[in-house]
Amino acid sequence: MSNTSVSHCTWLGISCDDSGSVVEINISRQDDYYYRLSSMNYSQLPNLSSLRMSGYYLPNIIPLQICALPKLRHLHLSTNALIGELPLCLQNLTMLEVFDIHDNQIVGLIPPELGNLKRLIYLDLSFNSLNGIVPYNFSKLKELKVDLPRSQYEFATWHVPYNFNKLEELTQLYLQGLLLWIHSFGIGNLTNLAYLCMKGNTFNGFIPSEIGNLKSLIYLDLSYNALSGTIPTTLGHIDNIDLSYNYLTGKIPGNLANVNYGAFIGNEGLEKTDGSRRMSRVVLMTIPIPLMAISFIFYLVLRHLILFRRRMKSAQSEMIEKNGDFLSLWNYDGRIAYEDIINATENFDIKYCIGTGGYGSVYRTQLPNGKIVALKKLHHHEAEDPSFDKSFRNEVKHLTEVRHRSIIKLHGFCLHKQCMFLIYEYMERGSLFCALSNDIEAVELDWSKRLVIVWDIAHALSYLHHDITRPIVHRDISSNNILLDNNMQAFLSDFGTARLLEPNFSSNLTANIAGTRGYIAPELAYTLVVNEKCDVYSFGVVAMEIIMGEHPGEIILMLSTLFREDIMLHQILDPRLPIPRENSIARSIVLVVSLALACLNSNPKLRPTMKQVSEAFMAPKLALAKPFYSISLAQLQGNNREVWWEGVSKENSSSPQEYQGS
To answer: Keyword Kinase: yes or no (predicted)?
Structure first.
């Protein structure tokens, strides 16, 4: 990419100045070609000011040559499967203003030298495996938006320096997902702070009263911690607040009475004030009552509305006492009420319906704030069926407890006999099954995107099985329950049949076999024992389906015996895609198929765990000892898999024996 010719200035994602010198590279995984970070000649890009390469999933280390770009101001390398540590030479990028490297596999500590980047205003190191202490000399930076590291696979202990309060220009501070211990760092001095998110960190003690002194604060999230004591009245000026799932006690301050009660759920010691009870009803209305009536007509209008609300409240109270319903509405935006949902869907008009699932219909809904969401509504006749009702509530229970980037996000819910619905993040591309069934979308879903989907679902299942306090078995892993956003990123959905794994073996017995035909582990037919190996089997089916472009029914039937030697790997690949030419793609396909075959073992004890599968995908890919065209399924089955990794001994190989689970 030389500056001596201007032909490169017409390339997709390349921007040049008037002299033909490259000043910006902006390439994402949607583009038609790939660049390896290590193969670029950075010495020929002296005027490069912005480098954005995201979503390439090409395992590599951050090349040291990047440190020699004197004019670089923006560096975005997110979601590239980068490994290794952050190079110390990054301190040489003295013009750097934005550094975003989230969602990689970076390890080690943050180099203290990064604190010398005086122009840095935005730093995102989240979703990596970093650990240790936030460098003290970060406090030299006066304009910094921080999203501190949080690993998606494991918790780590982080310490915030005592002089963090010197970041007086700080406007956004996110300490989320793994901060287990924190010094008191004078948060009250961060007077320009507008957004403060410190959720999921097991903070204990009282809510610092000085947070109330932050007059610029408009967003506060302290949910999923271990905070105790009462809620300070000084927080009343904050527009958006979430204190759910702590150990708070006492009364909710009167100046927070109009906040959605979802912001306080999970605090058993909190007393429900009249305001909070009112906010937990199906119909949520906030009617400002002025201290003095401006006119008699205005008074009559208010009086009419108040009487109407009282009648509705009385009716709802009677219904609650009669039915014993669990009610909760809305965890997304406290200002969006039940009637907004009715209006947005025109009372659930069929024209907004985009699909029908096992126990309800799904609607595409645009909320008053412009957000488009998916709404799953349980049908009236199904709400009266105890099994459907249980599945619906089960989905709410599990999705409010899990947090993973590849698990569908639950924005809110309403559980009531008259109307039950869930509010999800809307997935533009629909299900993976639909994408694979459509020839145009299947071609768009190229090998790199398909591999990423396999990896993402593997990591999500590993999280459910191994990284939360009470493991969850999904029980219905299928291509229909994997949803795709506009960037073809995959999200695991539909937790209606999910179950918590109990340490007591007998507690995991089931009277009903849940799941989708063709994805259910065969042993369930005679053992009726639910465990994580059921999900492992279903994952193997989905992984093969992604590679083949169709359900692998015939392959599964052949697994009862050894594959014939003449069934070649390349012959089962989705014919709508070209045979992979890049070695990295070919190696990854071999790994996926090898692990998928191990997951499909009829003996659940011989299947790998999802943690082992996830770790195998994260490990460096070894070179193939033979050409891709010459590899057969028989060679990837059983004990022979280690042969196809060059220079790998039997002890170090990723053979199925290594992944045997108990």
So the answer is: yes
